[in-house]
Amino acid sequence: IVPRMPDIPGIDHPQVAGYSDIVLGRRVAGKRVAIIGAGGIGFDVGEFLTHQAGHDETEEYFAEWGIDPQYHERGGLRLANERPPLREVWLLQRKASKVGDGLAKTTGWIRRTLLKKRGVKMIPGVEYERIDDAGLHIRVGGTPQLLEVDTIVVCAGQEPRRELLDGLRKAGGTMAVTLIGGADVATELDARRAIAQGTEVAL
C-alpha cells in the first residue's frame, strides 16, 4: 500500500509528511505536530511521536503507568511519572463521533488513555480548509482555527500499490498473478484477510 493523500489545498506543502515517512525515519517531526486521521494508524503515529525512549523500556513502562514491581506500596502501585510531553500533538478526525471510536473494543480505551496522559489533543468533527506557511487551517463546529504546527502527518488511509502487476502478468507467461492483502483492497487493511488470501492462493 501507499498512504492516501487527501484533497486539501496545500497538501504538497513541505511541512506535510506521510505516516510511512515518519515511522521509517525518512522525515523527523517537529515539536508541534498535527495528525490528520484518527484511525489505528493515527493512534500508532501519536504514540510513536510522544514516546520518550529510555535505557530500560520495561522500567519506562512501569514508571509511566505507576506500576511498582517490587510491591513497596500496597497493590503494587506508585505515583505515575508525569513527564512533560515530548511534542505538542493534535489528533484530528472528520467524523463527529468520539476519537478512536473504531479501535478494537478491548484495547481502544487504553490507547485513548495513553494519548491523553501524554497530552495529545483529540479533536473530532474537523473540516480541513488549507495548509500554508502559517500551519493547518481547520474548522470545528463552524469555527475557524489555525494550528500553528511544524509538521502535518497524514494518516488518512491508504491506496493499493499495484505498479508491479502489469510487469508480472507479462513476464509470468502461464503463471497466474493474484492480488492479495493491501494490493487487493487497501481500505480497512486487515492482516487476517491478507494471510487467508495468501494461504488460499498457495493451496
Name the descriptors.
203 residues; five-stranded parallel beta sheet; 29% helix; globular; alpha/beta
Walk me through this protein's architecture.
By secondary structure, the protein is of the alpha/beta class. It is built from 7 helices and 10 strands. It has helices spanning 19-23, 40-50, 57-65, 108-117, 165-171, 181-184, 191-202; strands at residues 2-3, 16-18, 32-36, 88-92, 121-123, 126-132, 135-140, 143-147, 151-154, 158-159. It has a 5-stranded parallel β-sheet. It has a 3-stranded antiparallel β-sheet with strand order 6-7-8, with no helix packed on it. It has a two-stranded antiparallel ribbon with strand order 1-10. Helix 2 (40-50) runs parallel beside helix 4. It is globular and about 70 Å long. The mean pLDDT is 91.
Low-confidence stretches: none
Give the N-to-C terminal Cα separation: 24 Å
Question: Major sheet: order of its strands?
Answer: 2-9-3-4-5
Our estimate of the beta-strand percent is: 15-25%
